Structures are given as structure tokens and as C-alpha cells.
TrEMBL record:
This is Methyltransferase like 25B. PANTHER family: CGI-41 METHYLTRANSFERASE (PTHR12496), METHYLTRANSFERASE-LIKE PROTEIN 25B (PTHR12496:SF2). Pfam families: Methyltransf_32. InterPro entries: Methyltranfer_dom (IPR025714), METTL25 (IPR052220). It comes from Cyprinus carpio carpio. Residues 132-358 form the Methyltransferase domain.
Length: 556
């Protein structure tokens, strides 16, 4: 049974400090770096901050501002106490991001040890599970033991897995890859003369379900989508066949006053269990992408028939996992965990915080909103993706804008690497900010238009970049530019980098508040949880895994 990572009072006090800090510097976290010149963002900083940051080199910005592990800081000038306080508070209040055995922040783009021999192939994952899987995803699968995740859980660990994905094309592709893996496995077994499967107890192929997880629907609708039904004999086998494994999961605990744990505890207790805590070998793997509106015609719709009226046996207990579940999907899965008696464990890795619904922005841009049929049962207690907890909702200044939440998705480790290497990529923000000022001079009504990425923009002169970028917003490629004005703005590239670093300093603070709100929500519902920096943050930036296991008495 889990015990609190830190007390309820400590969680609430941390939430108060986070909201206070973010409220104070909301003008920074809410700002868009592409408006650096058009909105004179540099002038919004105190003069003392401008003096301290204006002439820093990129490596100095990395050491003095962003890298929390730097020990010997050498300042070229005296910094104001307010800037020092911001840096110290931002570093102190955020959840640890370094995984056990992972790289420090200052190693930048270094790859995990499993990729030292081959940067494209994880040494921890069998070759048949690496096919079609990018290195970043290989690393995540190895660590979480969780498309590609369902395949490893099913064929690699022998679990009974159901995956739900909104895009029918991706479901079709996943099924195709399953068949390819089985064919490869059969051939290898024939060559070796080994009739045994990859896992000790043969299990079924993963089930792939086409469906959109409606955040407003009740948990029984979700159960209907998954089709997680077990016979009495299945439940008996799960109960009697794995007492040692069940005990391992039940004994997974959280040390008091600790925000992190050994990743080995999660690895040893959750992903390797074949019948953990009466799960009947069941794991529900949830899609990790927002459903594109173009595929709406093939979306699965579910009749809201109560589970008890389906004519089936009692639904099986199962583990719910979402690997980089986008936007409201993560918060919806947490609500299903608290409300659904059949979900016994949840492992949640969130992403795309800007796509979370809030009271101020119930329909964030870029999120598919299906039409609700009369069959849909809307949960009377359905709420927004943030905040989830009553406590955070009651704190003054808890609101997080779309821009603040979008900033929380940035990878601070990757930017640290750019700063230390003084990468040419650093000029990209300056280029886009200059372009924004040119666009507004020509079209005052056009603000922050989407500009399709210009390939290798950092390797171009600004005039070359502008020639390629302007037509993408409907302006002529040969639009006359004022070279004197452009050169004056290019001279401020260092200040653009320094300002963006301030924005990035607050990004982990925003992420911590979002995830802490979810921990407090679980606490309010009577469940302890733990946040684990499981992945190497330099390789997989959204590396914090929220884990909760229902206490034994709640599983009966």
C-alpha cells in the first residue's frame, strides 16, 4: 500500500508557494518570445535585471540562470536580489527531473547508457521490439515497461493488453506491426528450435480499439469502450496464480517527505508483473495523441449501456496506463481511476499541457471536439483538466494561461545544451521575432500568425529566411526590408536568448503546479500517489510518471 510522498499539508503549502511565484511573474510566463520586438518585452524587465542579463554569453546564462546543479557561479556583475530570489525559488519549488542513473542537466544532449553502443538501438530492448520505434520511444518503453507500448507489454511481458486510439489509421498500423512481430518471432523460433514464446505464459495479442476517450463521459462508458470483461475462471487464475507478484505491487511504497523514488521499484513491481493485484493479466493502454478532426467520420461511438446490463461477467480489474497522454486525456484517466472500481493501478505520463481545458479556456485551440450524441452519458461531476483539486481551485492566482501551459512543454535540458554549445539554433527565436515586427508593420491586424517551420533557418541569413517565411503568411517574398532596422534588431539576439531563458526558468514551475494539483486531487479522493522522474530528461523531457495504487481494502 502506498503512503504519502509528502504530507497533505506539505502538498498544500507547496501549491500556495507555486501559485504565489507564478502570479508574481505571470507577465513573463504569459509572454510570447516572437513578440520580443513588437511588444518591447525587454523593457518590461526591471532595469537592474536588464543590466545583469543583457551582456551575458549563452554559456553564462546556462550556468547562472537555468542550471540548478551549477555549484561555482561566477557573476560578471552584481545581480539584484529579486533576480536571485526568482532563480532560487524556481529551482527549489520544482519537482526533481533527474532519473536514477540519468544525466545531469548540464550534460545536454547526452544519450542514456543503453544507447552508448548504438544511438538508434536500445541495448535493453529486443530487436523485434525496436522495429518501427524511434530511440526516444524505445527508452520510454524500457523504463515504463509500457501502438509500440502495447506490443511490448503483450508479447514481451505476457500481459493481456487493450489499447485505445482515436485515429483508425494508427490502429490499423499497430495491428499490422503486431502481425509482423509474430511472423518474425515464429521464424526465429523455428531457426532456434525453441517452441517457447517470448514470455513464460502465452498470452493473447494486444487488442486495439478505435475510440475517443470522452472527458465528459462516465467511467462505465469508458469500460464499454475497452471491453474489459473477465470470466469467473479468469479472476480465479489471477487471484491464485500470482500471490507473490501481487504482494510486490501492494508493498510498493512511498518514503515520507520524498518527492522521488528509485525507478527500480516501479520497474520491478509494475511492468514485470503478469497478474499483478488481481488484474487478470489486464492492462489498458491509452492513446497518446489528440484525435485529428479529419478522421472524425471513423470515430467509435459507444452506447451507454450499464455494465451490469451487458449480459457479461463482472469486468476484470486492470492497470490503466497513459504514456504521454495528451491534454485532458491524462486528467480524465485519473478521474476514471478514482471513480471506477475496476481500475486498481494507474501510471500516468502527461504531455501537451496547453491542450488542457480550464474554466477560462474550456476549448483550447488544436483540440478535437466531437459532437455529443444522445447516447452519451455526461458525468454530473465532470470538470476541467486544470485545476482538478478543490484546494488549488481555491487558491488566488492559480490560473494558468494557454501560453504558460505551452511553455511547460519545453525541454530545458535541450536548451541548456544549445546554450553551452552556443548553437546557431539560438538565433531562430530572434529571426522569428524580427519577422513578427515586419508582419505587423505591413499588416497591423495580423498577430502571431502561424509560420510553417523554415528548414535550417539558423543557417540562413535573415533576408533569406524572410524570403521563405513571408509567403507563408500571405505576404510577398520580395517585401522591401529596412536593412538598418533589421541589423539593429539582430544586434539584440543575446537579449532575446536571455529573455527566453527567463520564460524557460518558469516552465518547470508551471509543470510542477499542474502535476501537484493532480496529486492533491488524488489525496482528496483518498488515494496516495507518487511522482517519479523515470525517464532520462535529456532524452525524454516529459519524464515525470504519476503512479497510484488503490489500497488493499479498496480493491475488494
Amino acid at each position: 500500500m502506498f503512503v504519502a510522498a509528502f504530507s497533505e499539508q506539505e502538498q498544500r503549502e507547496l501549491a500556495e508557494k507555486l501559485t504565489s511565484l507564478l502570479s508574481t511573474y505571470r507577465h513573463i510566463s504569459d509572454s510570447y518570445i516572437i513578440e520580443f520586438f513588437s511588444e518591447s518585452l525587454w523593457d518590461t524587465l526591471p532595469v537592474s535585471w536588464q543590466d545583469a542579463l543583457g551582456d551575458l554569453t549563452p554559456p553564462q546564462i546556462a550556468d547562472l540562470l537555468l542550471d540548478k546543479e551549477t555549484q561555482d557561479r561566477r557573476y560578471p556583475s552584481v545581480w539584484p536580489l529579486s533576480l536571485l530570489a526568482l532563480r532560487t525559488a524556481a529551482h527549489a519549488l520544482t519537482f526533481p527531473r533527474k532519473a536514477p542513473g540519468g544525466h545531469s542537466q548540464d550534460t545536454g544532449a547526452a544519450v542514456p547508457e543503453e544507447f552508448q553502443l548504438n544511438q538508434s538501438q536500445s541495448s535493453l530492448l529486443g530487436h523485434i521490439f525496436r522495429k518501427h520505434v524511434k530511440p526516444k520511444k524505445q527508452h520510454e518503453i524500457c523504463q515504463l515497461g509500457t501502438g509500440h507500448l502495447t506490443r511490448f507489454l503483450s508479447f514481451g511481458l505476457g500481459l493481456d493488453v487493450t489499447g485505445i486510439e482515436a485515429d483508425p489509421n494508427l490502429v490499423s498500423m499497430a495491428t499490422k506491426f503486431d502481425r509482423q512481430l509474430l511472423l518474425t518471432l515464429t521464424k526465429e523460433n523455428q531457426k532456434s528450435g525453441n517452441a517457447q514464446s517470448l514470455h513464460s505464459a502465452p498470452g493473447p495479442s494486444p487488442r486495439h480499439v478505435v475510440g475517443w476517450v470522452n472527458p465528459k463521459a462516465s467511467w462505465d462508458v469508458f469500460i464499454q469502450q475497452l471491453g474489459v470483461i473477465a470470466t469467473e475462471s479468469d479472476s480465479i487464475r489471477a487471484t491464485t496464480g500470482s500471490s507473490e507478484q501481487k504482494q510486490q505491487v501492494e508493498e510498493l511504497h512511498l518514503e515520507p517527505h520524498s518527492c522521488q523514488t528509485k525507478a527500480e521499484e516501479l520497474q520491478n513491481a509494475l511492468p514485470t508483473q503478469k497478474t499483478a493485484i488481481n488484474t487478470s493479466d489486464s492492462v489498458a493502454q491509452i492513446n497518446t495523441q489528440v484525435f485529428p478532426s479529419g478522421n472524425a467520420t471513423k470515430m467509435l461511438t459507444c452506447k451507454t449501456v450499464p455494465v451490469n446490463d451487458c449480459g457479461a461477467k463482472k469486468p476484470a480489474s486492470f492497470v490503466l496506463t497513459g504514456l504521454h497522454a495528451c491534454g485532458d486525456l491524462s486528467s480524465t484517466l485519473l478521474r476514471h481511476f478514482t471513480n471506477c472500481p475496476h481500475v486498481q493501478v494507474i501510471t500516468s505520463v502527461a504531455c501537451c499541457y496547453m491542450k488542457i481545458s480550464t474554466k477560462e479556456q474550456p476549448n483550447p485551440p488544436g483540440v478535437f471536439q466531437p459532437s455529443f450524441s444522445s447516447d452519451t452519458v455526461v458525468d454530473s461531476c465532470s470538470e476541467y483538466g486544470y485545476p482538478m483539486s478543490d484546494w488549488v481551485r481555491g487558491l488566488p492566482g492559480h490560473q494558468l494561461s494557454y501560453k504558460a501551459r505551452e511553455g511547460a512543454c519545453h525541454a530545458i535540458e535541450d536548451y541548456l545544451h544549445r546554450l553551452r554549445e552556443e548553437s546557431g539554433l539560438l538565433r531562430t527565436h530572434c529571426y522569428r521575432a524580427i519577422l513578427e515586427s515586419i508582419i505587423r508593420a505591413e499588416r497591423p491586424d495580423m498577430r502571431r500568425p502561424g509560420v510553417q517551420t523554415v528548414k535550417k533557418a539558423h543557417a540562413l541569413s535573415f533576408s533569406e529566411y524572410a524570403r521563405l517565411a513571408l509567403p507563408r503568411v500571405g505576404l510577398p517574398a520580395d517585401l522591401p526590408l529596412d536593412p538598418v532596422r533589421v541589423d539593429a534588431m539582430l544586434a539584440h539576439q543575446g537579449k532575446v536568448v536571455a529573455y527566453f531563458s527567463l520564460v524557460l526558468l518558469l516552465a518547470p514551475v508551471v509543470e510542477t503546479l499542474v502535476l501537484l494539483d493532480r496529486m492533491i486531487f488524488l489525496q482528496e479522493k483518498g488515494f496516495q500517489s507518487k511522482l517519479i522522474p523515470l525517464f532520462d530528461a535529456a532524452f525524454s523531457p516529459r519524464n515525470l510518471v504519476l503512479v497510484a495504487v488503490k489500497p488493499k481494502e479498496a480493491q475488494s
